[in-house]
Specification:
By secondary structure, the protein is an alpha/beta fold. The chain has one domain: Flavodoxin domain (Rossmann fold, 3-Layer(aba) Sandwich). It is 43% helix and 17% strand. α1 links the parallel β1 and β2.
Length: 199
């Protein structure tokens, strides 16, 4: 997979709960993406951005990029720097964790016209979490890619107990992770060029 355009991929860890599993697949997919040429990959852990519960009288789209909280502004800056997003999220009660939905709601313009993909697990491989994120992303003017990485229960259990979870996740790399990252990069390249033409 080659790209002549340098792209920044943000991998967003969608859970902050104690003893979470999320950081293991987040580290794996970030390391896998880093192997591709022309990509800069950064993990954004929501634990590092303890945003307040969304309480603004204005919607994020009305804020014009000026956010009322320092932590929100710092998170929005990171999102603005990204060209594509990989959300690594468990499924909680047929949807995404509240902390991730809160982070999505706080920011607007910085998400726009950028592709996103999802790595998920849980009931039916996290499928409902993936669909939830896709619907939210469309409203934020992101472009959800078709492919998603649904982690089977046996992979999750094995990786959770493994000393080196990446060796377990490696079973998903060909062709699943390869096609997932390839599709995300294709859209990221096209949309970055389109955004630059609009400037």
């Amino acid at each position: 997979m080659e790209t002549s355009v340098n792209l920044r991929i943000n991998v967003i860890v969608g859970s902050t709960r104690e003893g979470r599993f999320s950081e293991k697949p987040a580290t794996w997919i970030a390391d896998f993406a880093k192997k591709q040429s022309g990509l800069e990959v950064e993990i954004l852990d929501l634990r590092d951005f303890p945003m307040p519960f969304y309480d603004s009288a204005k919607t994020a789209s009305q804020m014009g990029g000026v956010y009322p909280h320092e932590t929100v502004a710092a998170f929005a800056k990171k999102i603005g720097e990204g060209d594509a997003f990989i959300f690594v999220s468990p499924e909680y009660n047929h949807g995404i964790p509240a902390v991730l939905k809160n982070a999505l709601d706080w920011v607007y313009a910085e998400w726009n016209q950028k592709p996103m993909g999802v790595v998920s697990w849980g009931g039916v491989g996290g499928a409902r979490s993936v669909e939830h994120l896709r619907l939210v992303s469309i409203e934020l003017q992101m472009m959800p890619i078709r492919n998603a990485l649904h982690m089977p229960f046996d992979i999750v259990m094995a990786a959770n107990q493994a000393e080196n979870p990446s060796t377990v996740f490696a079973k998903l790399e060909h062709p699943h992770a390869e096609s997932f990252v390839s599709q995300l990069v294709w859209w990221a390249r096209i949309l970055k060029l389109a955004r630059e033409e609009k400037k």
